[in-house]
Amino acid sequence: MADWDDLRIFLAVARSESLSGAGRGLRLDAATVGRRIARLEDSLGHPLFLRSAQGYRLTEAGGRLIPHAEAAERAMASAAEDLAGAAAGLSGQIRLGAPDGCANYLLPQVTAAICDANPGLEVQIVALPRVFNLSKREADMAVAVSPPEAGRLTVQKLTDYRLSLAGDAGYLAARPAITSREDLQGHRLVGYIPDMIFDKELDYLAELGVGTVPLGSNSVPVQLMWLRAGAGIGIVHDFAMPFAPGLRRVLAGQVALTRSFWLIRHADDRRSDRMTRFAEALTLGLRREVARLEALAAGQ
Q1: Domains in the chain, ordered, with CATH?
Q2: DSSP code of 249?
Q3: HTH lysR-type domain: which residues (predicted)?
């Protein structure tokens, strides 16, 4: 029979699809991981992975083992929580995935405050301009700009946030005035690379009827730096504007977008008091931080 340590290694390989990737997360060398997988397969009497140059893919037997291994993972996490006790505060590691605008301009200060209140807690922020795959445990939970439509997940709305069209004051002063959307044709626009927009909610410029983006990046901070450098005009999160005090809104009465952040969790994590308490602190912190930064931006 497999013990928890065997199952822990099995899950790491299944999620990373490689021995080296699993080893990095487990802090084991790839050869050791490979030996442990081979031993587990021998003890169960079934091959769990198909090996190829592309990596490790689950066999049918491996796929059947996944829910049992994840149940053991949840049981061990729950036991650790019970032993630690709620009064001791949050502890251990939580990995949080988020789009890079949220990850850069909101989560650092919000999670720092949560960690100040819970000294035993370790938070990892994974900032990626794409949708996170929670089934592969890329993160324990994720912030998204659209609620998922499939999967065994729980979803809760975190907060609304606003976006505006903006440009650097120096850029705007040196170029023709913008008084209508038609005037945008005479200006260089900054935005997402069209074929790398991973969520329809991010296709801001389509709402302006703009088809060409001379300066495009899949990174929100890169777009913001272009605007700060006076390279053009583009859509900016209002909560990011205090980090770029030289920006000024354009067509403020005509262009104002609202989007939402959603917190995505594994359905089974609803039974985890630790994850629930962290989610509650994150929700409260994000709402307060968005409100604080948007109030600062209103004065720019």
Answers
A1: 4-84 (1.10.10.10), 89-159+260-298 (3.40.190.10), 160-257 (3.40.190.10)
A2: E
A3: 1-59
